[in-house]
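Many groups now describe folds with learned vocabularies. In that spirit, our science desk offers one protein's residues alongside their backbone shape tokens.
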Amino acid sequence: MKKLLAPSLLSADFGKLTEQIEQVRRGGADLLHLDIMDGHFVPDITYGPPVIRSLAKSSSLPFDIHLMIEQPDQLIPHFITERTEMLTVHAEAAIHLQRTLRLIRSFNVKAGVALNPATPLSVLDYIWEDLDLILLMSVNPGYAGQSFIPSAQRKLVELVELKKRWKPDLIIAMDGGLDVERSGQLCQCGLDMVIAGSAIFAAEDLTARCLEFRHVIDAAI
């Protein structure tokens, strides 16, 4: 399975969004990671469906949409565009998680579950057949620029073993405090998809920074 790089637009300069998306595309980004926050499940508020629909018209990269919202079922259809390839909800926010995953898949989109740092992997026990992606949060969600929580690496190693047993084609993603060096280490441990925000968009040359990520990701075995 190819290792994936998904720059998180939460850290982008929204005044230069189209330009920066093109820069990360040239650097080898595979997807754009779009964080949707409602001010309830997490403290902050970001953007909504009108912005996603507008981006879908101007971007050639597929979307990895991360819903950090309460009652996600009500809004999932509004985030389905021609660019939406993956859509992830939080286990902590979806009351009927299996039904929510089925809803996502009904749109021919990969269904993902995000787990906060303190959420155990056991919440996945009875939904493996409905999963395409697991997003491990390596920070507590809600803000960009936080520091990596070290226990996330141990959680990743445990999830890789579960993947071998239950879902070999599962995509394991991680988001939060990932720099180039740490991304390479995590990919060596079995991470499939690197989501990075500040580490990419704070760079002077976004294309060059993505190429740095691409190098360590592709070198992982």
In short: The helical segments are 17-26, 49-58, 97-105, 151-166, 180-189, 198-201, 206-219.
